Amino acid sequence: MRQPNILLVMADQLTAGALPAYGNTVAKTPHIDALGARGTVFSNNYCNFPICAPSRASMLTGQYATRVAAYDNGCDFPSSTPTLMHHLRLEGYRTILAGKMHFIGPDQLHGFEERLTTDIYPSDFSWTPDWDAPGPPVSAARMSLGGVVESGICVRSLQQDYDEEVAYAANRKLFEMARDPDRAPFFMTVSFTHPHNPFVTTREYWDRYDPADIDMPAVAPIPFDQQDGRSQRHHLLTRADEHAITPDRLRNARHAYYAMTSYIDDKLGQLMATLEACDLARDTIVIFTADHGEMLGERGMWFKMCMFEGAVRVPLVIAGPGWPAGAQVTRNTSLIDLAPTILAR
Q1: What strand order describes the sheet that includes 327-334?
Q2: Contact criterion met (CB below 8 Å) for 116 and 170
Q3: Is there a domain that residue 131 lies in?
Q4: Is 102 an annotated catalytic residue?
Q5: How many domains does the chain have?
Q6: pLDDT mean across residues, the chain
Q7: Has 87 been annotated as catalytic?
Q8: In CATH, what number is assigned to the domain containing residue 298?
Q9: Burial code of 179-188, b = ≥16 C-beta within 10 A, e = fewer?
Q10: Which own/partner pairs from 119-126 qualify as long-range (CB within 8 Å, at least 24 positions apart)?
Q11: Contact between 194 and 250 (Cβ < 8 Å)
């Protein structure tokens, strides 16, 4: 029996609570909804580390981030650490990556045989601050709420250009593989950078939403002196006192985030259409997930780097051979389970 192909589609900083498949009533994501209808939705799925690089390292190795020494976005990911891709290659799979994976260090493949694009972030150790240097140890521009204040419409952004390249390369590769009658099964990861901040989008996607329909956070900002210690550190790290998040700015940021989520949904739809056009759909398991979530103003917090629900609960939808249609798994699951689950089937 031929082994199924596997297409792993990743969003960046997409909280599960922003999707209709997880109860949201604002977002418009018909392709994610359709994938869930013909597959299995994991309702309570969590990342293991709400920061990009550690979360991805944990997911791809099936180990806790601390076991592979991935403590932040500046930690080297050793090439000696086995990954899901190494195991799949031993089973005869072609392993292909298009898009972001946030590998730090000289090894930019980690078991992928082919990389179709560059990464959007640097792979060197510039993420690690110089703790001996005078002044603030972390760049204010990197973590501040400036990207929230400036949310809205833009003609073009680095994120849009990057994700367009990722989608183009991935779709072209699917067509290329479909033309090979003797092709091996493939494991292709297509990893986008939307809807990661800064929260900016084109007019086309912005206009899909009426500002009056944008919901506001369920939990109001917590006064600094009433916050737990970790939340206080988050407040200081994001320079929250330097940026006034007015109700209009809050609504704009959430509006843009929903628009960026619709953009990701369209990219998933394009990939699904290509699978159908190539007659690959019935033999391909499609997995949709994200590396971590986004607080979106809940408790007055933004981005990730905390263990509240918005930052750690992420979507996981799996459809294809062997996965029941319309099923829902309500027990807790985690991205650390993904690699062993794929290998066990």
Answers
A1: 114-115, 94-99, 186-191, 5-11, 284-290, 316-319, 39-46, 327-334
A2: yes
A3: no
A4: yes
A5: 1
A6: 92
A7: no
A8: 3.40.720.10
A9: eeeeeebbbb
A10: 120/158, 120/159, 120/162, 120/193, 121/52, 121/73, 125/74, 125/76, 126/74
A11: no
Q: Indicate whether 80 belongs to any domain.
A: yes
Within a domain: 236: yes
Would you state the structure tokens that stand for residue 4, as one six-digit string? 């199924």
One-character DSSP codes across 203-264? HHHHTTS-GGG----SSPPPPGGGS-HHHHHHHHHTTGGGS---HHHHHHHHHHHHHHHHHH
Token pair 């997930």 is found at: 289
Domain that holds residue 286: 5-126+137-344
Beta bridge partners of 206: none
Q: Which residues contact 243 (CB under 8 A, 6 or more apart)?
A: 144, 145, 146, 148, 149
Given 31, 102, 196, 235, the catalytic residue:
102
Q: Which residue of the set 52, 110, 234, 235 is catalytic? A: 52
Q: Helix 30-37 crosses helix 247-277 at what angle (to 10 degrees)?
A: 50
Q: Tens of pLDDT along 35-90?
A: 999 999 999 999 999 998 999 999 999 999 999 888 887 787 888 899 999 999 99
Q: From residue 97, how far is each of 108, 189, 206, 310, 344 by CA, in Å?
A: 10, 5, 29, 27, 22
Residue 331 inside a domain? The answer is: yes
